[in-house]
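Suppose a colleague, Dr. K., hands you the sequence of a protein chain of 342 amino acids and asks what its three-dimensional shape might be. Before reaching for any lab equipment, you can write down a predicted structure in token form. Begin with the sequence itself:
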Amino acid sequence: MTDGPDSTDGETGDGPAPTPGIHHVTCVAGDPQRNLDFWAETLGLRLVKRSINQDDPGTYHFFYGDAEGTPGTSMTFFPWTELPEGEVGAGQVSRTAFRVPEGSLDYWEDRFDERGVDYDAREERFGEAVLPFRDPDGLPVELVAVEVPDDDPTTAWTAFVPESAAIRGFHSVTLWLGDAERTERLLRTMGLTAAETEADDAAGNERTRFAAGGPVGKYVDVVETDRQGSSGRGTVHHVAFQTPTDADQSGMRDAVASMGLRPTQQIDRHWFRSVYFREFAGVLFELATADPGYASDEPLDALGERLVLPGEFEGRREAIEAELPAVTVPRPDGKFAANRAD
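The predicted structure, expressed as tokens, is then:
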């Protein structure tokens, strides 16, 4: 990738429509059944879509979110069992944080104790209580206690976790970067503003928080580090930002390209339309539309019930299903939904 001159459009008010915040975060997992058990049952997120990696159809793509798969709530995974364990370092999303209601961290610590989840002592960050933990593949995740407003756009999924503690979409992502200056300028061009800075003990440096204008997934924290990392199980593949309409996405794509980055053309991902690019420090960014959404091809009350093969892949269902390992989706009544559609 060739980096060109930086743009300051986002700082002058002449840039694209600002992103409201994070749309989804996609990560690399190992065993698909273990991933389902942890994210759907232990963390209580809803499996809103069970599909395949459209670039590698022999691999699952699991989408977890709130009760309706609202933009800003979906954590997605590619379970690549053959990959080695990764290591978080510069040029990666180092932490993904979710919002939970104030007063619920005691519940989560008790739940983690009961289920053997690896977690750390609570921290305070920008005046908020943070509970760091790791999923079974070692992915660093955090719960941040916040006041959830009455008009919050998310809808709690309560199959396994009570509404008083249920995850309510993203809070933030933390970017670990070797050199943050141009990435920070990019974030400003995307419509985020620098809000606060404080010391970050984990990286031995400062943490700067950038804020978008939306109610969910509005924060991006930037930390400079020279720590080396590697991709693999337990790392983030990419972070997607909301560009709700095609016009919003086109404007953002043009702004990104004007900075010397190389965004792809729009790619139809069936539940949203996407543009991808690596930002200056190497983190893979995606721009994702709001429509058509996860309920566009399944009834809302049946999300995740069957293996959905988008577009041309449906005609290859028999061969694709034969290649995928069998999995079952946890159910609160002790029953399970198999991965086959028949």
